Amino acid sequence: MATLLIVHHTPSPHCQAMFEAVVSGATDPEITGVEVVRRAALSVSASDFLDADGYVLGSPANLGSISGALKHAFDGSYYQILDSTRGRPFGLYLHGNEGTEGAQAAVDRITAGLGWTKAAEYVIASNKPDKAVLEACWELGATVAAGIMES
């Protein structure tokens, strides 16, 4: 069975709504052979990254970058996962009122260093996530999960 790891930092109701939509898409009954593992960014381990076949990352955009929690997840695991996770697919969702460009750039730098492959368009939202944003989050989860689905 393939494993999708969702690493998230959800300090606000808006981030929570986006996270729940991603999980809903990733766990759609039509997607089979994929275990969805959810880890808060402050509790994820290198083993979690190593055991996964793909990733969805979620964060608020704080002061022009990703949350300290998501950065901590990579700071604590980067060298342990560097050579073993190359080529794995990932997706990203961000919520922020401003500074999302810097947060996106931070994730792009980290994932490029790891050699991960962008599997879906990023979902970036500000203000309260509307129906279109939540549908895009659902699609993000479903797309990354379907991409690692075992045949």
From TrEMBL:
Going by the entry's taxonomy, the superkingdom of the source organism is recorded as Bacteria
The NADPH-dependent FMN reductase-like domain is annotated at: 49-127
**What terms describe the molecular function in GO for this protein?**
oxidoreductase activity
Pfam entry (one): FMN_red
- Write the protein's name: NADPH-dependent FMN reductase-like domain-containing protein
